[in-house]
Design goal:
The protein is mainly beta and about 80 residues long. The protein contains one helix and four strands.
């Protein structure tokens, strides 16, 4: 992913990348915090779900590679 547009990146306080990926025949949602100005943050990839109660983000990092580049692999079939 290209976040090199300096004219836009410096204007934001936070950038969160959100992607869909097919894993084991299911479409799943993933997110990762790319940038947060002035604070440390996790760089882990997390699966999330949108429910009637709001957004639920997994507390354990996703065991999958390539999601942000469109090539998800490596996740087990456990859910």
């Amino acid at each position: 992913m290209n976040y090199a547009r300096a004219d836009m990146a410096y204007l934001t306080d936070a950038i969160v990348a959100m992607r869909y990926a097919e894993v084991d025949g299911h479409v799943k949602r993933f997110m990762s915090v790319v940038k947060v100005r002035g604070t440390s943050h996790s760089h882990d990839l997390r699966e999330y779900r949108i429910t009637d109660d709001g957004i639920e983000v997994d507390t354990i990092p996703a065991q999958v590679n390539g999601v942000l580049y469109g090539r998800a692999d490596g996740m087990s079939a456990e859910e």
